[in-house]
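Field: COMPLEX_INPUT
Field: COMPONENT_COUNT = two
Field: RESIDUE_TOTAL = 355
Field: MODE = joint
Values follow.
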Amino acid sequence: MMPHCSRRYQPNGAILLGLLCIVLTGGCQSLPQRSPDVASKVEEMGLMLDLQPGEIRVERRNHLLYIQAEVINPTLDDQSLSYRFRWLDASGLVLEEEAWKPLLLHGKQRQFIKTVAPTPQAVDFRIEMHAPNNSTPTEWFAH
Amino acid sequence: MYGMSVGIRRLGWRLGLLLAMGVWAGCVTASGPASGPGVVGSGRVQYGDPKAVESVSNSFGSTDLQMIAESMTRSLLQSPAITGRHRPLITVDHVKNKSSEYIDTRAITDTILTQLTKSGLVRFVVDMAEMDDQVDELGRQNESGLYKKSSAKKMGRMEGADFRLVGSISSIVKRTPDFHDVYYKFSLRLTDIESGVVEWADEKEIRKTTTR
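Field: COMPLEX_OUTPUT
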């Protein structure tokens, strides 16, 4: 005769459905929000869930644009990131696309990406960011 | 009953044949030779992004060269020695390779020279490596008798550089059976040729680690 307790813990469809609901609702965490200032300058290749682009400071010194962009790792684990700047002239034409650069952020670390425009003709910029281990296509969240 | 089972068997064969043809067609489409206007070859060669992060091995690579050149260029453009003068003249001296591997240091200085020239904030004069070609060209224009005197560029009018760039790259390698760590340090200095004063200096550090 089968013991009573083993019957009691037999998984059934309702329990599995419940677990699935928990997993799904747990997976659908609130989306990371970007301030309009950051969103207008940072182009994420897939939404970064574990890294956050922070404050961006821009200043013009000696005819050159100085940029300081903050990247935050709110997780406890090390996270990797690739980034590059795209420099635009007054007409919005691309002057230069830099080489991709790797960046390692330790857990809970804030890093500052600092650079200066390659030429006085560069008056605007975009930062492309790509975190291969923690980015998700934004289309997933569109529905 | 027998006729029905034969029919089912035949249907199965036909479905299997259709499936096989579909798979074959998919394979041909996916791995077949590249075709189309302007494409020649098997299609097995692919062009990659020359600016992508290259992490094939621990040895010095394209991303290291690009990061060093960019970092040095941007730092140099902020130097008072550059911002305080109108398009100063620079000559590239040498970059000594003190690392444990072969590195084409000329490729690094060439990229730095290109990026600085594109900034429009500095100018470069012929360096020692190109001086023989420069002298040969001037000699040919002035001494060969082949050129009109009015268009031949005159001797003794070359511009002397205000500054010279000199640098070095060194590395520290640590290796265990399951760990390989390489630390690169690239140093560059800008020296005032007249006074001998080092007006600017900067370093770029890179660490690359492989775990087995």
